[in-house]
Amino acid sequence: MRRKGTLHVRVPHAFPDERYGARMTANAPLAAEERVSTAGEREVLEAFIDYFRQVIVSKLAGLSDDDVRRRLVPSRTTLIGLVKHAAAVERGWFHHRLAQRPREQIGANSLGDDASWDVTADEAITDVVAEYAEACTESREIAARFALDDTVPHHRLGRVSLRWIYVHMIEEMARHAGHADILREQIDGATGD
C-alpha cells in the first residue's frame, strides 16, 4: 500500500559510496570529479555512474508522494518515474546485456520502454528507491566480474564492451539527472546536485 508523506531516505543507506572514502547525503553529494580526479579509468567510470545514480535519487528527498508523481511535462516523466525507469535501464544493460540473463528471468522491467516509467498507486517512494538501489547493487556486482575490454553481444552494434556500457550509462543517467533537475525546480525551486 502506498504511504503518503514526505520522503526521508538517506541516500547513503540506499547508495553506499564507501569505495571513495566519501559518504553522500541527499543534500550534498560529493561530485565524482572530486573523488577520483587522479584515479584510474575504471575508478573514474564507476565514480561518475554512481554519482549520477545518487543525484537522481537525491532529487526525491524531502518531497511528498504527490509531488514526486506530478506530471509537469507532456511526457510520462515524473520524478518517481525517472527512478523507476533508471532501475529498468540498469537491469537492461547490466543484468540482461552484460550478464546475458534472459529478460524473462530478471523478474522486472529491463527494457527501459514506455512502461518502465509507470509507478503503480500502491508503490511507495521508498519501494521505488529500494528497487533502484537493488538494481544498482546487482549491476555493480555483475560489472565487477568483467574487465573494461570484455565484450558481449548486442543486437544492433555487434558487440559492446563494459567500457562502452559504462560510458553509455553515464550519458543516460546524466541526461535523466538533468530531467530531474528541471522537475525538482518546477516543484519547489530547489536546484543543484
UniProtKB/TrEMBL annotation:
The family database entries (Pfam families) matched by this protein are listed as: MST
Superkingdom of the organism of origin: Bacteria
In Swiss-Prot or TrEMBL terms, this protein is called DinB family protein
Q: From which lineage does this chain's organism come? A: Bacteria, Bacillati, Actinomycetota, Actinomycetes, Micromonosporales
